[in-house]
Design brief:
With 299 residues, the chain is an alpha/beta fold. It has one domain: 3-Layer(aba) Sandwich (Rossmann fold), CATH 3.40.50.720. It is built from ten helices and nine strands. A seven-stranded parallel β-sheet has the order 3-2-1-4-5-6-9, with helices on both faces. Strand 5, helix 5 and strand 6 form a beta-alpha-beta unit. Helix 1 crosses helix 7. It is globular, with a radius of gyration of 19 Å. It starts with a strand and ends in a 14-residue tail after the last helix.
Length: 299
């Protein structure tokens, strides 16, 4: 297939590019800065928040879009706004990039008759991280799956939840096949080594629930969902995270220690089982998480 990869110069984009190349797909790259793979594939210098740039990137027979571009933080969050201001980034950057950028890409796909759209979403669509009010995220049951209610507060989490609904609407209205991978703490080998170096006793509950996923594994999920888009449901949202956590203690022990009220409202969690279930992704396209961090712990 001829595939457009947005965010081609980003941390995840390079892994998606490598995965698609290895599978024999033809690529078009889009990003604001030149990606390393521009030596091998056509690169469109552009911003997804500009509709004309999206039109240029989707011309020439593109058959599918792998959308990895995004602002990964809430640019208006009270805790981080000062850092964005120092860098000259406007308060509304997250909303414009993540929502309008996705909308422009979808509109460009309609104009070009591109029928498959796979996007890197985020487990933040739950609303468990980046909370502003100070109230804890209400966990109903464990492990959390795609049916669990969301309660977002910050603009990044909101934008990712909105994008899921936006893609669903394009499936309903136009028949586009759209899929979202709710990735969690994307880690390349360097970040996995860092987890191993800092592994130690867990002192408190984490709002992020110790979830992570290997960069290579997100890339393989992107490819599998795209390649099987014609065989699976036309719209899907899938948690895309590792089968285990980023901490040493067994998961059930952590739940009983920090969230005892959940220990009896959920099934027992085995070993280092993740608090977020990737079962739907595994069963839908046969995805497997292969990268590890525990084997990097110094013995």
């Amino acid at each position: 297939m001829k595939v457009l990869v947005t965010g081609a110069s980003g941390r995840l984009g390079q892994f998606v590019i490598a995965e698609l190349e290895a599978a024999g797909h033809e690529l078009v790259l889009m990003s604001r800065s030149r990606p390393a793979a521009a030596d091998r594939w056509h690169w469109v210098e552009g911003d997804i928040a500009e509709f004309d740039d999206c039109l240029r990137a989707t011309e020439g027979g593109v058959e599918a879009v792998q959308h990895t571009a995004a602002n990964p933080w809430a640019s208006d969050h009270p805790a981080s706004r000062a850092r964005y201001e120092e860098r000259g980034i406007p308060f509304d950057d997250t909303m414009r990039t993540n929502i309008m950028g996705t909308y422009y890409l979808l509109q460009a796909c309609l104009k070009r008759d591109i029928g498959v759209f796979v996007m890197t979403g985020s487990n933040c669509a739950l609303g468990h991280g980046g909370r502003i009010s100070g109230t804890p995220f209400p966990i109903r049951y464990l492990p959390i799956d795609e049916r669990h209610p969301s309660e977002v507060e910050d603009s990044y989490s909101f934008s990712k939840l909105v994008d899921e609904e936006l893609l669903a609407s394009y499936t309903r209205a136009y028949g586009m096949r759209t899929h979202v991978l709710r990735s969690a703490g994307i880690c390349n080998v360097e970040r996995r080594a860092e987890i191993a170096r800092h592994a130690g006793p867990t002192e408190a509950w984490s709002d992020w629930m110790w979830a992570w996923v290997g960069s290579e594994d997100v890339a393989s999920a992107h490819r599998l969902v795209m390649e099987r888009a014609a065989e699976i449901e036309p719209h899907g949202v899938y948690f895309c995270n590792a089968d285990d956590t980023t901490v040493l203690e067994p998961t059930q022990e952590l739940v009983e220690r920090f969230k005892p009220e959940l220990a009896f409202a959920s099934r027992p969690l085995m070993g280092h089982e993740s608090l977020l279930s990737n079962r739907r992704l595994r069963e839908t396209v046969g995805w497997k998480h292969k990268t590890k961090w525990r084997d990097l712990i110094a013995r």
